[in-house]
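Before going further, learn to read the protein records used in this course. Taken together, the tokens spell out the fold as the letters spell out the chain. A record is reproduced here so that you can trace the correspondence yourselves:

***
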Amino acid sequence: MIAYVDSSVLLRKVLRQPGALREWAAIQTGVASALVETECLRTLDRVRLRMGLPDKELARRREAVFRLLESIEVVEVTAPVLARAAHPLPTELGTLDAIHLATALLWREQSGGDIIMATHDAALGTAARSCGLAVVGDSA
């Protein structure tokens, strides 16, 4: 399976949270926006500050983010991605999630391949479905 993986999926894996993506092992090719690095590292910094994550544990979690990113295709946030994200969408969606969705849709158009949206974000899952993508991992 080819899956667009958003930061919610990576973070549940890195933070060892319950409800991690069951389909993870079935992903043969992972695709993600370059945004996920920033989103994941900012989240880890918030966890460090709010929960007192020790330095060694923070370093392990950051390393896990980098290793996961090395294993997937990271798509840069380009002008065409931003332009696509700015277009009206069939459902309400915030800016970062619109960039994720636009990245997945443009990847599908440019590669001609089928891609599944992997997310734990219900709004992103709904928007992806409304644009014709199959979705795994969301609760909606």
